[in-house]
Specification:
The protein has helices at 3-14, 18-54, 77-89, 120-131, 141-169, 173-178, 184-204, 211-229, 242-257, 262-270, 272-285, 289-292; strands spanning 61-64, 93-96, 109-112, 115-118. It is mainly α and 299 residues long. Strands 2-1-3-4 form a four-stranded mixed sheet, with helices on both faces. Helix 3 packs parallel to helix 4 (120-131), helix 5 (141-169) packs antiparallel against helix 8 and helix 5 (141-169) runs parallel beside helix 9 (242-257). Residues 219-281 form the Metaxin glutathione S-transferase domain.
């Protein structure tokens, strides 16, 4: 082979063909076009949902949360807490399951008169001020302090222990069984979700303990609630208040969605006044409980 021929051959090896380059450009263009179409569709769908939520009526709260459970109206204690409060306060509301995570990346969040807000505790405080629904007003200063302490125990301590059992000890299996609908993508991403939750539990601190240690910690909390409740109808006395909503939101999960967990035995057997309490709140504020378990109509 001549020197010139060898040079031409080497040059061909170094330079990709125009057809290959054009193919890559075409593929990139198709991907960008598809991404653009999907982004536009999502944007339009998001706008349409907000128009629909704004059309529900003035001062009607739209609660956005995770889907229904088979035995509870919601599998999230925080969504169930907010719903229970809205029923206690007699504030009109509608549920939405299309967009469960809001501006803070949390569930639940709400839309009210076109405004969006996240975090169930902050939402309840805001709604209480807006609609004049302060159920702690008649409590003594001592009772208000106790209500605040129990509320924080439930939402900032018990919730982490319950979450550890659901996602780490039980590996989310019962969660999937109790979900009313389980999209394929949810099952596919479950291992990733479990890793994310375990990481948050570890950084919070409770994930660093053994299962037995956590069980003991949580039992002490449940015992304290049981002792304080005693034979009263509700936690602070004869009338329901905000802390009952939070307590019910968590204990209802244990009653119906934690089958086989040590906490189920604690609530139903060891501290039976907690079981009676949950059933009493359910009867008072959720007379349509079974009706609420039915699947929502798809939009």
């Amino acid at each position: 082979m001549s020197v010139g021929a060898i040079g031409d051959f080497q040059a061909c090896q170094r330079r990709p063909s125009h057809g290959f380059e054009n193919g890559r450009v075409a593929t990139a263009a198709v991907v960008l076009l598809a991404f653009g179409v999907i982004s536009v569709k999502r944007y339009v769908a998001k706008k349409n949902r907000r128009r629909r939520w704004a059309a529900v009526g003035k001062d009607v709260v739209v609660v956005h949360g995770l889907g229904k459970g088979r035995r509870t109206p919601n599998l999230s204690p925080f969504v169930l807490t907010l719903e229970t409060y809205l029923r206690l306060a007699k504030i009109p509301y509608q549920m939405d399951y299309e967009e469960p995570f809001g501006p803070k990346g949390q569930s639940p969040w709400i839309t009210l008169n076109g405004q969006e807000m996240g975090d169930s505790q902050l939402i309840i405080q805001m709604l209480g001020r807006r609609f004049g629904k302060d159920f702690t007003a008649s409590l003594t200063k001592e009772q208000k302090g106790a209500a605040r302490a129990f509320h924080m125990m439930v939402t900032e301590h018990l919730a982490w222990g319950f979450r550890l059992w659901r996602w780490v000890e039980n590996k989310g299996r019962l969660m999937l069984q109790e979900m009313d609908r389980v999209p394929f993508i949810v099952r596919l991403l479950m291992p990733l979700k479990r890793r994310q939750i375990f990481k948050s539990l570890y950084f919070q601190g409770i994930g660093r303990h053994s299962a037995e240690e956590v069980h003991d910690i949580i039992e002490r909390d449940l015992a304290a609630i049981s002792f304080y409740l005693g034979d009263k109808p509700f936690l602070m006395g004869s009338d329901l208040c905000e802390v009952d909503c939070a307590l019910f939101g968590s204990l209802a999960q244990i009653m119906w969605n934690y089958s086989g967990s040590p906490y189920e035995t604690m609530v139903k057997v060891k501290y039976p006044n907690l079981k009676e309490y949950v059933l009493r709140v359910k009867e008072t504020l959720w007379p349509d409980w079974d009706q609420c378990l039915k699947r929502p109509k798809m939009s």
